[in-house]
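User: Fold this; tokens only.

Assistant: Input:
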Amino acid sequence: MADGAFALALLLIGVPHLAAHPPGRPVVGWLLQVALFVPLVWRRPAPLTAFMVVAALALAQWLVGLLLPTGDFAVLIALYSVAAHSTLRRLLIAAAVSEVGVGMATAEWVPRLHMPKAFVLLSGMTTAATVIGVNQRTRPAYLASLEDRAARLERERDQAARILAAEERAGIARDVHDIVTHSLSVMVALTDGAAYALPSAPDRAAGAVEHASRIGRQAIAEMQRVLEVLRADGPSARQRHPQPGLGRLDGLFAEVRAAGLPVEFRVTGAPPGMTSGAELAIYRIVQEALTNTRKHAAPGTAARVRLGYAADRIEVEITDDGRPAASASKRRPGHGITGMRERVAVYGGRFHAGPLPDGGWRVYARFKPGRLGGTA
């Protein structure tokens, strides 16, 4: 229906010109005028067939000595339809036929002096019709590919955001675990000691309770920092709320010693530059290892912490010399050891935790300096 209306409109556009300049053979001219546009009715379902019929009728008008400008326009419309709705092979056929027609028209109607210019002009018109048709055919596929690419990028962004959120939740879960287990372990040890010392040494008991209260407030402050990170927007949230680093190890050791676990600390080599995240990872590893010693080792146990810095490695080692308070089989890898292993894996390091041959427990992590954000 639409193509029929289009063909009729083109036919009517040519009527005034034909009426103002009637051909020498009016009946033949009017019949050819109508016949040139009738094939355009099926220019979409059978574009090459429509083009061939129009081209044949255009040739017929030349053979009978008629010059119908609207006939040339019909040829261009038919060529455009082949380019827009048919295959490349059929388009090449139609383009070749068009160029033959251009050559014949130039030779027949244009003076020799102006033939080159006329040929270039007419060839440019057929080329323009072809290019417009090809663009019309490929544009939907191009737009579809852009939409598909945009949808794929959107899915990739969503997936990356989910992965980042999962990693952030895992990191926060590790922080919460480390804060809660360490602080509660120290507070339990201090309050147990206070209860034991209360009858005979109330001053020492009061000091232990005060120390436990201070540990609790520190834990609350750290938890508030973690929760502020959860509520904050943007990638710099953690930078605005700094976490513990190597500079706070002495305070950690003081808390552990106050809870009844002797700690020996030793550093070998010169510390390299490290990111705050790397320092936090080492701090949490030491904190969790000492917490596990407090929870699992028998009374009288002592712990040793060693940080070793060398050109090709950074070592973190925490050992204790005590036997487990219960059966050794009960000291199984839990969330704490899993969290330590994950922290080490983030920086491409090696991790091991297990019993020592002569009793006690050893936690060992090894990093390459470059993976921690600095050089030795």
